[in-house]
Amino acid sequence: FFLCSCLTFDLLHVLPDAQPSQSETEIWEKVNQVLTEAQVILDDLQAYRGAGEEIRQAIQSPGVEGVQEKAWSAVVPLVAKLKTFYEFSQKLESSLHCLLDVLTSSGSSPTQHLEQKQALARQFAHILHFTLRFDELKMTNPAIQNDFSYYRRTISRMRINNLSADMGNDVNNELANRMSLFYASATPMLKTLSDATSKFVTDNQDVPVENTTDCLSTMASVCKVMLETPEYRSRFASEETVLFCLRVMVGVIILYDHVHPSGAFVKTSNIDMKGCIRVLKEQPPSSVEGLLNALRYTTKHLNDETTSKQIKNMLQPN
User: Fold this and answer.
1) pTM summary value
2) I need a surface site. Which of 6, 144, 228, 237 has the fewest CB within 10 A?
3) Tell me: the pLDDT tens digits for 110-160?
4) Got the DSSP string for 56-90?
5) Angle at Cα 253 formed by Cα 248 and Cα 257, nearest 5°?
6) Which residues form the CYRIA/CYRIB Rac1 binding domain (predicted)?
7) Domain boundaries, the chain
């Protein structure tokens, strides 16, 4: 099983792209468009600097002419970016649904699905990689929350004073409320995917939940073995490949924890959680702190009584 699965993951990331079969092409092309946009989203988020200085000036000098306008002009295009990020989360949710549909269908085991549908399994891994990377960047950028809060306060003030808020205001109140909820989460993209996976299981009662959880636990096991086995680890082309593998592992653990009735942390779990956490803790702290935080704060069952003290201690912040 492990040899076969490790070969699968070799093909998932290290070797050139697996080509979709004819029956998979439509889904693959649809998801590929989303993954192409995902890279643009990450680049934009990485370059996001915020309007902290302009907002500070506006708050400190409310009566000074031009200061409010300058802050507003700085914030409006940033909120347009935040709107794009939020709307992209909905595209990602739709892509995840398409892939789960195929990778959890009855008739083949999870390992067979990953073997036979490598092009789609690889896309699933890339969605998880994007999700964890987006949330790592968001978690370390307080400007996002500050900019959006300032935007909402300014819009409210304009409404109260009957001023026109049309300038750049293509975020109506309902959308602003949804965006607020999205950005209030420490890990907004992961929360989107976790909710989407849970909804997928609920909406597809004819598909046994094991089809989904076995697919997720298989991918977690594959990642762990790839990371802890020197023979496989030595084949990784770069540190970025290691991070790819770590992000995918954490992503599938979190989805599994949301979907499996007992979660990922119980003794009977199909995921070796102690082993996975150990692998994470063996990496340079700076590269995995965001991933450990995702396990601490985005999982569903970590604080259950059924979770062993050892696992809880392993995930205690230093």
Assistant:
1) 0.88
2) 237
3) 777 777 888 898 899 999 999 999 999 999 999 999 999 999 998 888 777
4) HHHHH-TTSTTHHHHHHHHHHHHHHHHHHHHHHHH
5) 150
6) 16-312
7) 2-314
